[in-house]
Amino acid sequence: MKTRGSSLVLFYMQWIVLLLLFSSCKRDVSITQPEPLEPDRKLVIHSVPAYCAVYINNRNSGFFTADTLFRLEKTDTLVTLKYQYYRDSVFVVHVPDEGLVELFIDFTKNPAMWGNLNCTAKPVTCSIIRDGMMMSEKTPYIMRNLLPGKYTLTYQAPNCREATNTFIVRSGQTTNGFMALEDTSVWVSYTRANSGIPENRVICAIVDDHDVKWFGTPGSGLVRYDEKKWTVYNMANSGIMSNRIQCIEKDRSGNLWMGTDCGLCKFDGTNFYRFTKSMNTIPDDYVTTLKMDKSGILWVGTLNGFVRFDGNTWKKTKWDMHDDAAWVTGFAFTQSNRIYLATMAGVLRMKDDTTYIAHSWYMDSTMTISRAMNAIAVGSDDILWAGSLNARMLLGGLFCFDGTIWKNDFSGLPDHNINCIFIDDNNEKYIGTENGLIRFSDYYADKKIYNVYNTNLKSNSIHCVVKDSNGNVWVGTYDGGIVKYKTKSDR
């Protein structure tokens, strides 16, 4: 019985193995039908302008005209072409199976793609230059049927600074091309944006015997302007000793003298020469003011007194004043041979030309006006004018002295910080303040105040004023560049 049972078990096991083998073989040789391949539809689009972005069924394909697009999903394909400033071009393309379709789209021929540019200006009538080409038309004028893109326009008009700007024209739109030209009939501004000055801070100026204008900046050196070309002298391109030019003066030989924070510098048109405290020439390297007297002697003021130079010898003056009086900010010489000094402690008068300084305080300690003098000048009538800064909780102001009486009842000042005083040959006074420029012959009869609201001044911080041989007044500001004031045109 055991033998028979074992035989039956073996028999059934053999059948199971055969069935498994048969099943495995059947799977190995089974065959399924392959999926049909997607028809290869191709599309090529050429365009004007070229390199339009191609969108397929509202999706960015990543291709541009005239790339070849492969394996389009549908027979009818929604195509969108995009190009900057142009209106989108949308159309449906039928590409047959295994077919190739080539298209040519010219945006520029489609009037719906064009735009307009409305050219208007102040003043109303200006010449128009488009992309460097002078046009026969003048403003106001509408340029019609322009292709989308950028157009550079320049407007020109008499007694105005030309204006240039770039405008964008888009499909189906009219772009506003308005520009306001700066009126230069009376005031002409010079800034970093429209001229060759290296920065907009100008703190001193002078006009030489050839009518060349020289300007000092607090950080970019010396600037020369002959009304044709701007030339900059700095530590990187010349032998100038500092880029901070605090004062400028000229001598009879045509040399230019500059006071800096590093000493005194002379420029003969070619070379720069240095004079410093270590050379035993000046009392301090921080030079604050320079003035040439009628004898040709150069007076040099510093933070620690002053010195005189006659071209050969440096003549020092004994100085026994306190610190504020040692800070000299200006010199003035009257027709009656009086010599005045502006200091941070008030106005001083030299008693004689030796060593003794007799200080003539025009105000006592009970007065509530600042004695921090920052500017001084004498008119052709021998009247002395001085201006002070706000200091020690006291307001600055404007003062005048006729040799006997001091006056300071000048109400209506735009600001109490007086930065500079310039008096021309006609005894016209120009007072630079932190809030505009004052001009007058008689303060209460013909005073005028100029600022950013009624002129082309770009800043109300006036730091220097000079006048050229043509009667033009040049005004240096602390953060608005330079302005030329055509006084003969201001009638």
Give a count of the beta strands, DSSP E runs of length 2 or more. Answer: 44
Fraction of residues in helix: under 10%
Cα-based radius of gyration, to the nearest Å:
42 Å
User: What is the CATH H-level superfamily of the largest domain?
Assistant: YVTN repeat-like/Quinoprotein amine dehydrogenase
Shape field: elongated
**Helix- and strand-based class?**
mainly beta
How would a textbook summarize the main sheet?
Answer: 4 strands, antiparallel
Low-pLDDT residue intervals, each spanning 5 or more residues: 25-30, 358-364
Could you name the CATH class of the largest domain?
A: Mainly Beta
- The CATH architecture of the largest domain would be 7 Propeller
Termini separation: 145 Å
- The order of strands across the largest sheet is 3-2-5-6
Report the β-strand fraction as a percent range.
35-45%
Mean pLDDT: 89
CATH topology tier name of the largest domain: Methylamine Dehydrogenase, Chain H
Number of domains: 3
Count of separate DSSP helical elements:
3
